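[09:14] KT: can someone run the structure on this one? pasting the chain below
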Amino acid sequence: MSQYKELKERVYEANIELNNRGLVLYSFGNVSEIDRDKNVVAIKPSGVPYEKLKPNDVVIVDLENKPVEGELQPSSDTKTHTHLYRQYKGIGGVAHTHSTYATGWAQAAMSLPCYGTTHADYGNGEIPCTEFLEDFQINGDYEEETGVQISKTIGKRDPLSTPMILVAGHGPFSWGDSADNAVYHLVVLEQIAHMNYIAKNLNNEIKPLNQNLINKHFDRKHGVNAYYGQRK
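[09:31] RB: done, structure tokens below
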């Protein structure tokens, strides 16, 4: 029995959740999770349709993208995932899709302003969009450079305060403390992108929320004195 059985099953279930939520077509997406004790990452195999995916198909690689376990090739986006794990120690899972509304904003190379409190509950400010990759990045180590572009855009922000991003011309990525959490954030991102599209079309002069209101909604859910939900 594989020593990574539980990790692979979690990543399988997280990938299937993307499919269940209607965020993927065919094989258009991938989710991973890292085991920091073992320094390995479990990730969806490349090009395998979701309806054919099985837990044992999930591939294990190390943080330098070398195969550890699995007969299939890992996702073509693996280097983007591992870059984020190396860069941000608080990240435990990463997810990526080409979902309709979030990808639409990414293709327009537009960040998602915080127009409403739904957004503020999950992101303390705009959800940024990267700049387009330059030719040397595209012609070089493309997937690694995609990760570099993401971390460059995050800059000095706390990646966990807005755990989502749009890659210009490409699509959305998200992260969290687990594969499940990364998927959750990606589902939320698609909903925010959809609502922003509607709001922008209803009122082309719409402005972002007052930052004080954004902070209030974010902090009541994630802050030191958060009071949203049930206390343990």
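[09:33] KT: thanks! The chain has a mean pLDDT of 95.
[09:34] RB: yep, looked fine to me
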